[in-house]
Amino acid sequence: MSENLDKSSINEAGKSKSEDSEQGLEDAVGGSDEALQETKNSGSPSTQRLQQRPHSSPPRFVTVEELLETVKGMTNMALAHEIVVNGDFQIKPVDLPENSLKKRVKDIVHKAFWDCLSHQLSEDPPTYDHAIKLVGEIKETLLSFLLPGHTRLRNQITEVLDLDLIKQEAENGALDISKLAEFIIGMMGTLCAPVRDEEVNKLKDIQEIVPLFRAIFSVLDLMKVDMVNFAVSSIRPHLMQQSVEYERTKFQELLEKQPNALDFVTQWLEEAADDLLNQKGKNALPAAGGAAGPRDAPAPSPTTVQNHAYLKLLKWDHVQRPFPETVLMDQPRFQEFQLQLEYLSLLGAVLLVTFSMAGPGVSSQADFAEKLKMIVKILLTDMHLPSFHLKDALTTIGEKVCLEVSSCLSLCGFSPFTLDKETALKGQIQAVASPDDPVRRIMDSRILTFLETYLASGHQKSFPTVPGGLGPVQKELEDVAVKFVRLVNYNKMVFSPYYDAILSKILARS
Length: 510
Prior knowledge:
It is a single chain. It is extended, with a radius of gyration of 31 Å. It is mainly alpha-helical. Helices cover 70% and strands 0% of the residues. It contains 20 helices and no strands.
């Protein structure tokens, strides 16, 4: 694919994609009362959220048209948000599940079409009606890949794939399908992205006309996806500049239709403010009339409350508690952060008790420390899968760690690891399975302290000092911190007016 796509083509591709997505959404939702009733009775997450919503505002009935319009707006906002916050975002080719109804229908229709084409071409003389229609579709697809400045290529395609001329040649028995296919493959090779070169080259080895046309359309579909993804990557810098205002506007439209759409956000911020006030109250000096209470402490700043609120999302009960509305689109990301930090906490705890028990002579061996870390990481890789048994894995880790420590002590000429120490180390490693284990709790606390410090530092590039005990997992922790803080800062930019309004009322009551 050409590297110099301009904005007009990008906008055109984006507009087309958006229109297709919105039409598909309308088809999927349907808009019938039966479909809405089916959704209501299904116990879907959306229905559950509405049932759990606090009754701070009376419900307002909306029409089906309003509902569809709202769904469209939220879908577009979610797509723009995903493009902005996910640097790896890409459109994937549609791959229907095997044995699904859509897949079976598609296969039947396609087989009937290609069988008909094969039958026409095998007639004597051949009939080219279907083949010419396919050439016309290929011509339009190739032209859609071109930019306004590609005059020479446009003229070539228009001249060689002139359907009127091709029809005349077919009527006079002078049509050479193989020659047309050769031109089409050559043009595809000119316009495709480098990643498609291999697929295009394979087309040259196909001799049968029907399989060749099928393969050509398959590769053209991939080229369309490449075109859209190139457009997405090209518009991302421009979208970044507009997305904050765009998301805020879309959310405001939702808020106007659903006035109680900030109830869970309010609860979330209230809890964060209460946490900080209670914490400050415990540390406050007693007043002249008696002991200090939580409300005697100075109120925290709105920024501090917001930062603490985002940290609470890293310990959120996603099964039992509704997620705050303004971060709902990023709930999977916060769940992923939560799993990653739990993994790092457990990994750090195992390494901390191991190095503490083995002594500085072992922990100072950089190669050994890295080797031990890799062993534990591998054995904990699947810790969040339902089939994973943490206690069994920690038993295996304990055995393996003790063998490695004994080997290292022997090689370095240190005193051997005694049986009592091995038993004690295995027991401590087993103990970190519990989130209430003192070592685990220390690791959790220090991880949150690191993230809180980095979040409070604003947009500074340098990381704060890693708390003690987190050194072995510093790199992994910093990787998570960068993604977490970037996501939080973006969310703040979008929703800060709402947060400020809510916190002004909450903190005024403090």
